Each structure stands twice: as structure tokens, then as C-alpha cells.
Amino acid sequence: MQKGIGIFGKQYEFGYKNETQAEGSVVRVLFDEMIKLDEDSVDYLYSSYTDLSKRYEQGCRPVLERIVDELKGVTNAETVDNIMKFCRNVVTRCNMPSKNFIYGGTEEDVIERATYWCTDVARVACVLFQIAGFPSRIIVTVNSNFAYCGHSVAEVYYDNKWCLTDPNAGLAFRHENGSPASAWEVHNNYEIANKIYHNSDLDSYGNSIFFPPGEQFDSIGISNYYVGDMDKYDYTTSGTNEFYRKILKHSGEKWAGGLRWVHGEEFL
């Protein structure tokens, strides 16, 4: 099995090494621990890797508990969808310019300040799912055929099946019969994601101006992130570093000239 920031190739490894999140902080650790989802690892990742018996201890995160209480639906699927809507609202409330952006912090911090930074929003979803009683984990996706096409999402376990979700977009991935669609299933059938994005108001979400949105799941890494392990992580916040300023400038120019490496990564 492949593990760590090098699982998506040298160009993306260089990016993770220059991640704008604080050195040693929670997201950096989750990137270091991710396991690549492929034929060699799929059985392990969908069996014993994530401890489905771990349960949130009530009273540990009271602010988040109150949020979850308001989001609980009649069915498990409805609760998942409500958490997705909440996460989407965290994104749409964000009006902070990138030069003043803050990264990291606890999930409570992320919710309060609002953000569109996917790694932080994915953590919010993961923790809310677990407080609601659903096992969950962090999913990192990369379209390795293009520059800077990384995204962080989450996978949640309910009704005896894993369900891929995109917290930034506020979407849960399901088959046409309504059953949850896992990250592995989406990886092997991009049309699952293509249809869901197309049927939402986010058909051109992310970099899909350059490729169908389902192709974002070309490569996948999975990391466990247990809400009960909060004391093990560093929630130091950080600002935008010079490495990311140049990428964000390119993004702000609507990727003029196409999705291209701007730090010479193609020569690695």
C-alpha cells in the first residue's frame, strides 16, 4: 500500500510539502497519514482500517452537539444531507479575500469564521458526522492529469455502507436507487459524480471547466480522523504563504493559459 504525501506523484508531493497550513498542524498530519485507495488497499480500507465502533463521547464538543441536534433528520440519509447543507453554508458565508485568509483551527473556529478552504470544511463534516453517530473519514482527491486539481471531501458510513460526500458543494453521492455510493465506486464510475454535480446548481463546480467533475476522483487518499482524538492534534492557524499566493493569483485569473504548474513542478 502507498502512504503519505507522495501517493499522487512528485508534483503533488511538492505541493503538500509547501502546504499553507501550519507545520505539524492537523491537516498536515492527515495528509501524511493518507493511504492511496487502489486495488492493493481497497479491501483493507473498506474493512478494518476505520474503526466503526468508535463513538463520540457526549459533552466533549457542546457547540457542535447543539448544531448536530438541529440537523438531525427523520432518516440517516436526511441527517447526512442536512449536514451537507450546513457545510455548504459555511462556504457561502465566506467573504474573506485570499490575502487575509486563515487556515486551520478547531472545527468550531472554522464554522465561526466561515471558509471555502476544502481541507477545513471536510474536517467540519467529518466531526459533525461522528457527533451525529456516523463513522466518517477524510478523503483527498486528485486529478493527477492536471496541475493543482486537489480537493478534500469526506466519506460517511450509514445504513451499513460508505457514502462519499463533498462538503464544499453540499452534496452526498448516491446511486439512482438512493443507496450510498462510496469513494471507490465513484473512482470506478465517474458518471455517478457527473450526474450528481450536473443535477445540482454546481454543474461547473471546481475545475470542471477543464474536465468533467467526476474525473476529480481519478486518485484518492483516505485518512482516519476521529473526533475523540482531538488532543492528539495541533490546531494552530496560519495565513496564506508565498507558495499558495502565486497559485491563488493564477486561480484568480481564471487559470489563464490553462491548468499549469507555476512553481516549476513539471521539471521535478
Characteristics:
single chain, 268 residues, alpha+beta, 6-stranded antiparallel beta sheet, two-stranded antiparallel ribbon, 10 helices
What does this molecule look like?
By secondary structure, the chain is α+β, with helices and mostly antiparallel strands. The chain has one domain. The chain contains 10 helices and 8 strands. It has helices spanning 10-17, 26-33, 42-45, 62-71, 76-92, 107-113, 118-131, 183-188, 190-199, 242-252, and strands at 35-36, 103-104, 136-142, 150-158, 161-166, 171-172, 219-224, 237-238. Strand 5 (161-166) and strand 6 form a beta hairpin. Helix 4 crosses helix 7 (118-131). The longest helix is centred in the first third of the chain and has 17 residues, at 76-92. The two termini are 23 Å apart.
Question: How are the elements arranged and paired?
Answer:
Layout: H1 10-17, H2 26-33, E1 35-36, H3 42-45, H4 62-71, H5 76-92, E2 103-104, H6 107-113, H7 118-131, E3 136-142, E4 150-158, E5 161-166, E6 171-172, H8 183-188, H9 190-199, E7 219-224, E8 237-238, H10 242-252
Helix pairs in contact: 4-7, 5-7, 6-7
Brief characterization of the structure:
This protein has 268 residues and is of the alpha+beta class. The chain has one domain.
Strand order of the largest sheet: 1-7-3-4-5-6
Structure classification: alpha+beta
Estimate nothing, just give the exact number of structural domains: 1
How can the largest sheet be summarized?
6 strands, antiparallel
Mean pLDDT across all residues, rounded? Answer: 95
Number of helices: 10
H/E order of the elements? HHEHHHEHHEEEEHHEEH
Number of strands: 8
- For the record, give the distance between the C-alpha atoms at the N and C termini, rounded to a whole number: 23 Å
Low-confidence stretches: none
Radius of gyration: 17 Å
Tell me, what's the shape?
A: globular
What portion of residues belong to β-strands? Answer: 5-15%
Helix content percent band? 25-40%
